[in-house]
Amino acid sequence: MTLPRPRLALIAILAALWLGMMLLGGPRSAADGALAEIFHFPALVGPARLVTRLGDWPVLLPLTGLATILLFVLHPGRRALLFLAIVLSGRVLVELQKLDLARARPDAAGRLVHVASLSFPSAHAAYSMITWLAFALLAAPPTRRAAAVAAALAVALTVGLTRLVLHVHWPSDVIGGWAFGASWTLLCVRLAGGTAAPRRH
Q: Is there a contact between 97 and 15 (Cβ–Cβ < 8 Å)?
């Protein structure tokens, strides 16, 4: 079974969106400040604190390990290693972006959970997108891949939104995290698309 071949146009659009959020968003952006106010929902703070854990690295790390094992069982070969490479390399790139851009988070007085890292991109948005989307693309058979991808996107989008409800990120951080996570995952899967299927003799 061959890997999916994501379209380059989609990858390019997502990469452009990530770049736009990096360059135009942040504390000096009036649009970011205005959009952040929309997510003031006190009734959702409790559920958001629970759901946001799906993007915590201490949660995603063991899930990544389990997913790698499952992929190896379902598809003996390179898929498990590809999944692990996508997730780990994506994490490194996210951390490098944070250090390079050094964007400040929203005012500490309004934050509803403790955070210690820099703001762009949202690691929760990016990590959840990379992990769940990569697993959906690599694990699901072609007939169920669309449903698996939809479920992965739903999880990643929900996790990202919790960061806005909890007031620990600018909207551009979250959108940039989603866009980077999706573009990186799709690019890696496309580049490996011709290498994971066993050769026929």
A: no
| Sequence spans of domains, the chain | 42-191
Region label for 179, one of left (φ > 0), alpha (ψ between -120 and 50) or beta (otherwise) = alpha
Residue range 167-191: mean pLDDT, rounded: 97
Q: Write out the two tokens for 46.
A: 């409790």
- A 10 A CB-CB count for 157 gives 14
Q: Decide if 186 contacts 14 (C-beta within 8 A).
A: yes
Residue pLDDT, tens place only, 9-33: 999 999 999 999 999 999 999 999 9
CB 167 within 8 A of CB 33: no
Say yes or no to pLDDT of 194 above 90. Answer: no
pLDDT at 134: 96
Number of other residues whose CB lies within 10 A of the CB of residue 186: 23
CA separation for the pair 118, 144 (Å, rounded): 37
Phi, psi of 173 (to 5 degrees): -65, -45
Between CA 15 and CA 27 the distance in angstroms is 22
Residue 104: both structure tokens together: 């400040």
In this structure, are residues 124 and 101 in contact, taking their beta carbons and an 8 Å threshold?
no
